[in-house]
Amino acid sequence: MRFETKTKMSAKVTVEDVERVAELAHLKLAPDEVVPMLRDLNAILDYIAELNELDTSSVLPLDQVSELVSDTVPALRADQFVPSLNRAAVMAQAPETDGVFFKVPKVIER
Amino acid sequence: MEKPKTLAALRKKIASGHTKAADLAARYYERIEKLNPRLNVFLSLTKERAFEQAARVDAIAAKGDPLPPLAGVPVAIKDVMVVQGAPSTAGSKILQDHRPPYDCTAVARLEAAGAVILGKTNCDEFAMGSSNENSAYGPVRNPVDPERVPGGSSGGSAAAVAANLAVATLGTDTGGSIRQPASFCGVVGVLPTYGRVSRYGLIAFASSLDRIGPFAANVRDAATMLGVIAGHDPCDATSSTAPVPDYAAESDKPASGLRIGVPAEYFGEGLDPEVRTAVENGIAALKAAGCTVKPVSLPHTKYAVPTYYLVATAEASANLARFDGVRYGYRSSNSATLSDMYSHSRDEGFGAEVKRRIFLGTYALSAGYYDAYYLKAQQVRRILAEEFLRAFEKVDAIVTPTSPVPAFKLGEKTDDPLAMYLADIYTVTASLAGICGVSVPCGATRAGLPVGMQVLARPFGESTAFRVARAVEAAGIQ
Questions:
Q1: Residue A21 sits in a domain of what CATH number?
Q2: Which residue of A17, A56, A86, A108 is the best one to mutate when testing the B interface, meaning the one whose CB has the most B CBs within 10 A?
Q3: Which residues of chain B have pLDDT under 50?
């Protein structure tokens, strides 16, 4: 699959886009959910396109707001081996397990 | 409507032995049994844990030993925070039967301070919503008017305090989800600075935006609650090492001499006239209390909602990828392949709004679109944040309406997701900037619907926000 990198927003989501995104997000939309999702996405993206009004060419993205709000850089904790969660309690939450591993349907699809 | 007693009044009664923590918990459970069927505030109750804690508190009081700061105080926790062994659904079917193996740090800190955890409160699914109508377990009704929403996503926690089903509660705020329900329900809600309170044990929605914060019936008690849960946690790499002041004592200081900024951008088109009047009354009260009030300019405010809905949804699409039916939560039956198991479990377990946001976020992050959407939003985020920090060089606090409208009717906005997003217009700015704030009641509409004023302060300036909020509260605006 080839894609051009878009640098400006354009609100024209297609059914193909919805199907591609569904695949990426591991979400299966029922046939009657596709058009409403398309409609909602286009309405929202249309509104979001307002951000194109701003020239941000010289602005660094703000990934960690802590960069602006904190003077102190939090200390990293020592790399020490300490007990983690209780395994039995964790595995008790598993949908299917042999007590050690999580069991799932076959991974390789032949 | 019955309001909870103040923490100070409760403490006196428990310390003197006049009230037993166990009896207090029992009375709250009776009240919950009576009111919860209608209001749908609580999703689950943690009675065993509550009564064990109450017994511990009563034993300390009987010996005459010093009581911890929240001894015997009945509290409730929004269901996005994990409580060991208790249901933690995040308002979703996908976690319906999940029982976490550990406690959220904020919850553990409340308990270490003596609080009695009554149960988990209802919320919008994965904290995504502004009305508590996106919960997979039914909406919460606003105790002030049960035909109306309590706000969201922390609708249950706000309503619990408003209906005196708990003395104080914890909620979370990612785009306004503490402040807006506080405003709709007529209670106090606190947005701590990003990093002030550990997020360990909070089921994540958007990791750069999520904050845990308290609701209470009055400002001083909200300040006390914040003091208990705030502070560095080695389990949260984004939690701050900044010292925790005595917020309650700081809130006692008079507000006179503080400089208050009023941004015109928050008082324009779309603001309900009765909300405007109530907030203007609040501002007048601040003037009367000796504050200097001046205009400030936040010209990029209108870009905050689109920025938020890109950043938050992108982060949510990553955070919710873990709900795949493998290790915990709902797993769909009859899936022949792993791939089907993932998509069936998610499809069957997630509600419509959650799916919509995952779609939007995935789209914004996908190859070919990342630069135009997510990256752009993060750039605008910096512009918005720096705009606030510049304003705080000239004023100590900024006041605005918390919400453009009072509590709307159930079902009124559910057909139009975009209309629902636009309701967040006054709260998402502070969320993106990482700064702190308080929503404090400042009157009501003619129909009796509560109105909240938002008091914003610079990072780690919660003390200032509390002082200003106290001054508004003291004016007793009806």
A1: 1.10.20.60
A2: A56
A3: none
